[in-house]
Amino acid sequence: MSFGAPDNPYGQPQNPPPGYGHPQQGQPPYPQAPGGVPQQGYGYPQQGQPGYGYPDQGQAGYGYPQGQPGYGYPAGPGPRVASMGRRFGARAIDAAAFFVIYVILGFAGVAGSVGAARDCDPNAVDYQTCMDNAGSDIAAKFGAVIGILAVVGLLYEWLMTGLVGGTLGKLAVGIRVVKADTGQKPGLGASFIRWIIPLVGGIVCGIGQLVVYLSPFWDKSGRQQGWHDKAASTMVIQH
User: What pTM, to 2 d.p., does this model score?
Assistant: First the structure.
């Protein structure tokens, strides 16, 4: 018996109306959309919802980019492949420079032997021997000049291409040799491979060197890579 005391001494309704305090038993804690799915925007987002926590798997902007331009060659139209006209022009400049050097060294080397041949007395008993000796001396000096030019040509082509990116002829016409996958200078290893293949072709087949230099015309990759370029993984671009 409560002696007239109210059933609820605190004046609170025993069954509060919906919408106040905690939800009634069985009432969903968040407002629901039609179909019984909780509406987004309340509490934690649904699993996989972008914008919270870590992004969805495969979402761009996190980690290393996959296939994104900027690695190797920069984004854009890409490097301009050097035309064959420029490449032959560069080769002609280098060949002309070596021809001038060959002529200078050749004349300087054999000048003394030619003078000795002129001093041979036609009336002397040993005239023929004197001329033979002079001729042998001239041939030996020409051979030495060719050997010197071969060594100089190796060092010139190899070191200039590997360390600078091109010979003086290539730099004069505005082209250079680069690694096909990175666009960087070839380095000494690739440069040597690129130099030795035409040389071997010339020794084995006679005209093999010319065929190697013409091989970019048959390249279907669009990079106009010759056989020596493909072996060294290089290409020639215009800059």
Answer: 0.59
